[in-house]
Design brief:
348 residues, alpha/beta, six-stranded mixed sheet, 8 helices, 24% helix, CDP-glycerol diphosphatase activity, EC 3.6.1.16, ADP-ribose diphosphatase activity
Length: 348
């Protein structure tokens, strides 16, 4: 995604040794489980480029090397993470300029790198995946990570929405949202869903370039963002109601941030307020994880929900990195960041 208007990225932090929580020394229980997080790899077999405004360097080839380094680090952890969240934009839109074969090759290299892990990888779909492929192709690719249905509410919303939930441990549920279900991206030119998304976008954005937020009252209404359908939000509400009733803690994830204090306004989901309204009508959500804004962001909202936006790999210098492991306890999540991503304790 085009990043916010900001200065050059901060200098890299020194490389950290693999984190192994020592519960005995801290006199607290061991973590229930851990999982890896990474966002905005945006790999392409191309020379370095720049962001939408020509201000920030993008390391297209090095991003794959950094992904491979993250995989090696996760594989070396003891115990290893139970799964990894890839928060979208794993390949860059520049691949599409060279044709479908180049896009398929780039995706194949990213999936091969992640395939070295012996744990599940859950994939959000971002705008850059949709620059390269239609939704039908993504649904048949290695980026369709939906697990088999289990007990509880419906596993997914109706239609081609790439949203689902899963339980990695008792009393913990993860919900993946599809922030581009409402979007012209990835849909056929004559698709009614595409036409409806374009009508909404043009009502909110009268600029000739629909990726230009200049002068907008709601600057999130640009084409590189998207939104959630009413059907998806109703399904999301049902999942959270089930989690409330069963005293579960819920982590929400997706490509697009949904809180303005954890993101530049330009990078928010179109109808982020609707998603927040669903979350705040329940007690179970403890954290929302997102990518899209390459500088990252964080806030603890007025309802006690942590919103963490991960820094993007694509704008990370080759000598650094941008990934992390989150250790989950009964009352908190502890992020051990690598490179540009800072350590963080999120209590709930």
């Amino acid at each position: 995604m085009p990043p916010p208007h900001s200065s050059a990225p901060p200098p890299p932090r020194p490389a950290a040794r693999p984190f192994r929580p020592r519960a005995a020394a801290a006199m607290e229980p061991a973590p229930r489980f851990s999982f890896g997080v990474i966002a905005d790899v945006q790999y392409a077999d191309a020379e370095d480029g720049h962001d939408f405004w020509g201000r920030r360097r993008r390391y297209y080839r090095h991003s794959l090397r950094l992904l491979r380094a993250a995989v090696e680090a996760w594989a070396a952890e003891r115990p290893p993470p139970a799964f990894v969240l890839q928060l979208g934009d794993c390949i860059d839109g520049v691949n599409a300029r060279s044709g479908a074969a180049e896009a398929e090759a780039a995706l194949g290299r990213v999936l091969a790198a992640l395939g070295r892990l012996r744990v599940p990888v859950h994939h959000a779909w971002g705008n850059h995946e949709l620059y390269n492929f239609g939704r039908a192709r993504l649904a048949q690719s290695g980026l369709r990570s939906r697990p088999p249905p289990g007990p509880g509410p419906p596993a997914a919303p109706p239609g081609d929405c790439h949203a689902y939930h899963f339980c990695p441990a008792p009393r913990f549920r993860f919900v993946l949202l599809d922030g581009y279900e409402l979007s012209p991206l990835g849909r056929d030119a004559d698709s009614p869903r595409r036409r409806a998304a374009l009508r909404l976008l043009r009502e909110k954005n009268r600029n000739a370039d629909l990726n230009n937020p200049a002068g907008l009252e709601e600057p999130q209404f640009v084409e590189f963002n998207g939104g959630f359908s009413r059907a998806q939000l109703d399904w999301f509400n049902d999942v959270l109601r089930f989690s409330d009733e069963n005293q579960e803690k819920v982590v929400v994830m997706g490509h697009l941030p949904i809180h303005p204090d954890a993101s530049d306004e330009v990078c928010l989901a179109w109808n982020y307020r609707d998603a927040l309204s669903v979350i705040h009508s329940h007690q179970c959500v403890v954290c929302v994880l997102a990518g899209h804004q390459h500088d990252g962001g964080y806030c603890l909202d007025s309802h006690g929900v942590h919103h963490l936006t991960l820094e993007g790999v694509i704008e990370t210098p080759p000598e650094s990195n941008a990934f992390g492991t989150i250790y989950v306890y009964d009352d908190k999540m502890v992020l051990k960041g690598r490179g540009r991503i800072s350590d963080r304790v999120m209590c709930f």
